[in-house]
Amino acid sequence: MWIDTHCHLDAGEFDADRDAVAAAAFDAGVARIVIPGVERGNFATVRALAHRIAGGAYALGIHPLFTPRASDDDLRVLREEIAASMDDPLFVGIGEIGLDYFVPSLDDARQQFFYNEQLKLAREFDLPVICHVRKSQDKVLKGLRVHDIHRGIAHAFNGSFQQAEAFIAQGMRLGFGGNLTFERALQIRRLATDLPLDAIVLETDAPDIAPSWLYKQRNAPEQVARIAQVLAQLRGIDENALSLGTTANAHAALPRLALASS
Q1: Would residue 15 be called left, alpha or beta, if left means φ above 0 and alpha means ψ between -120 and 50 degrees?
Q2: Which amino acid positions bind a divalent metal cation 2, per UniProt (predicted)?
Q3: What is the distance between the alpha carbons of residues 203 and 7, in angstroms, rounded to a whole number?
Q4: Beta carbons within 10 angstroms of residue 200's beta carbon
Q5: Is residue 150 part of an annotated ligand binding site?
Q6: What residues does 189 pair with on adjacent strands?
Q7: What confidence tens digit (pLDDT) does each residue in 63-118 have?
Q8: Is 155 annotated in some ligand binding site?
Q9: How far apart are CA 176 and CA 198, in angstroms?
Q10: What pLDDT, on a 0 to 100 scale, did the predictor assign at position 259?
Q11: How many independent structural domains does the chain possess?
Q12: What is the pLDDT of residue 104?
């Protein structure tokens, strides 16, 4: 079985065929799909979707790209939603949170504020985090250290080996997906090949970060299985070993996911 640890199945790109996409993933051996929240307006949506599809799970958070339209009161709502979700077996953590220095228009102080406030919530509720780390690995890691967070996923990891090792030392797993299927993505492929297997989880970030065979097309959670084939080939291991390893890693990163699976 495979776990897609990061899929925006609530995105508008899936409005026409969302249930069919989820069913195709399940048929492809993707037993769990983690749907992260991105803003106050979609908290209820991701929760309902996780309960509707086979293998659904969800996280709640305010994504750095959504901080320009977020209000301070959204953090109060987020805290209330987290508290209300603690008895829900499909709720697995806080995310997608983090920092983004790829988009130049984002206000640094504003996104740092939301990131740090959400790390405080992770500490308060003893929950793992799913972190957006685009061109922000060092500052995201600093926040994890300051707030003593030792569990979660650095999503779509594309840093250096030194940064990877620092995240691993902090207790985080690193998410890999469609990018590793491109032969020109030398750094990501080296990371995915050479890092310890117990540091790696699989993801799609669907509908984004499509694998090479879907270049510039919509990505979907069913692609985890084929992305895993590429990763197994790169690492020189069989797919069953990769499945067992990455499933255990996802459960270690998001412990409530393991409880929901039992």
Answers
A1: alpha
A2: 132, 155
A3: 7
A4: 24
A5: no
A6: none
A7: 999 999 999 999 999 999 999 999 999 999 999 999 999 999 999 999 999 999 99
A8: yes
A9: 13
A10: 80
A11: 1
A12: 93
Three-state secondary-structure class, residue 86: coil
Answer yes or no: is 88 a known binding residue.
Answer: no
Q: Please report which confidence band the pLDDT of residue 260 belongs to, taking 50, 70 and 90 as the band edges.
A: low
Long-range contacts (CB closer than 8 Å, 24 or more residues apart) made by 123-128: 123/147, 123/148, 123/149, 124/79, 125/82, 125/83, 125/86, 125/94, 127/82, 127/93, 127/94, 128/92, 128/93, 128/94, 128/152, 128/153, 128/253, 128/254, 128/255
The whole model's pTM is what?
0.97
Count Cα neighbours of 208 within 13 Å in the Cβ-side half-sphere. 9
Q: Report whether 8 belongs to an annotated binding site.
A: yes
Does 205 carry a binding-site annotation? yes
Instruction: Name, in order, each residue with C-beta under 8 angstroms of 64's C-beta and a sequence gap of 6 or more.
Output: 97, 98, 99, 100, 106, 111, 114, 115, 132
Q: Is 129 helix (H, G, I), strand (E, B) or coil?
A: strand
Spatial separation of the C-alpha atoms in residues 204 and 11, rounded to whole Å? 13
Pairing state of beta strands 91-98 and 2-4? unpaired
